[in-house]
């Protein structure tokens, strides 16, 4: 004769095998391609192990960057904040964004990318001081 607990275990195991778990659906990936308007920038600076947050004085809307499908980008300031244009190339692989302007290369980590929001972080260390700069854009 089978022990009652063992019977319950067999029944639960059998029932568990009959339930279906939906297959995970791929998450749609938002595209970097398009125009992104600058919203804000902040930096966290570590000096001697103590972090300090610094807000940037660059106003929202001061510039916009357009990433094109051919791997080029252009950043243009609003006439209210001066006039300059920067053109270059970019690659976007996973959560890494690499931009090139002339001989300079910059690498940023994409923290958030949705149809309407882009948040990037760039880390640097100089003279023992570590800085993480965060920039936020919308479209």
TrEMBL record:
PROSITE patterns (UniProt xref): PROKAR_LIPOPROTEIN
Domain of life of the native organism: Bacteria
Organism: Hymenobacter artigasi
Keywords: Signal
Cleavable signal peptide: 1-16
Protein name: Lipocalin-like domain-containing protein
């Amino acid at each position: 004769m089978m022990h009652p607990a063992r019977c319950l275990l067999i029944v639960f195991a059998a029932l568990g095998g009959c339930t279906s778990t939906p297959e995970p659906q791929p998450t749609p990936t938002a595209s970097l391609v398009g125009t992104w308007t600058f919203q804000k920038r902040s930096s966290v600076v570590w000096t001697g192990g103590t972090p300090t947050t610094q807000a940037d004085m660059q106003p929202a809307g001061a510039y916009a960057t357009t990433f094109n499908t051919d791997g080029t980008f252009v950043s243009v300031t609003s006439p209210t904040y001066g006039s300059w244009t920067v053109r270059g190339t970019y690659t976007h692989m996973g959560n890494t964004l690499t931009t090139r302007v002339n001989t300079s290369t910059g690498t940023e980590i994409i923290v958030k990318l949705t149809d309407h929001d882009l948040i990037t972080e760039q880390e640097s260390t100089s003279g023992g001081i570590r800085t993480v700069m965060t920039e936020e854009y919308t479209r």
